[in-house]
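Sequence in, structure out. First:
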Amino acid sequence: MRSALATVFVPALILALGIGPVALAQTTASIAPAPSAEAQTDAPFRLIMVEQPGCAYCARWNAELAEIYPKTPEGKLAPLERVQLRAPLPEGLSLRSAPVFTPTFVLVQNGIEVGRIEGYPGQDFFWGLLGMALREAGADLPAPG
């Protein structure tokens, strides 16, 4: 229920707050390297980031979080894997529905979608929504305090 609510709430919040696109120059922001195959197999979850060229909110996520994400508890539990919106999905991945918006963050456990965040509403909302999705999926992640 919360995931479905977040899917509707997040885009509406972005529009209501008038969060504008970031400068195009940020699309070239440094992007954290993909985790090694070993790290991906050891982690209980994966976070699939569906993106596309020219996506201002993808660029904003890259500028604000890409470098620190792998160093966080969430990043260690769910290493990031990037997928282009129009590209085929990784083999063995079962999603509830095809991503439509970018960025879309799909939390996957054993190849099956267990959570989704559509859009990037800023750091505070992103961490809260990701933490909620991880805890709902059974991750050992402390509640926000």
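Second:
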Amino acid sequence: MDKSTQFKPVPFRPRARRLRTSARNMLQGVVTSIVHGPVSAEVGLLVGDRLVIDAVVTNNSVDRLGLHPGGAAVALIKSTFVTLVRDLPGLRLSARNQIGGRVIQMIEGPVETEVVLDIGGGAELAALVTTHSVRDLDLDIGTTVLACFKASHIILAVEDE
């Protein structure tokens, strides 16, 4: 192998950095509770003034991030992890987070549509769903829907001080 094409490791240089992410949803909040289990913990995060979402992360992550009640954190949720549901009386879901919202924007494609919801308190939540589902749910601007996502589908982040 020619020496010019060989892999040359770059030395690791720790530095402060701010990350950008591909996660469409980034909800800033305040940790309200942490309930530890043997491996993981359920973390409550107050987003806005009245919406609490629950995330499940490992106990190691709680420690590494320095999470504590009253501390700031950001919930990262991929738009593909959000499921939209119309009014279905008696429906029970295993998804821990079920948030009502109003459709404020839709970007429709032939296969998928991005649906953006106003979930109150100045916060928005985006869901990427099939265009077929948008038609089946009869979604349009102003439609009220339920956005559902599992607590284990949330990544929690904190900003370095």
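Remark: The two ends are 46 Å apart (CA to CA).
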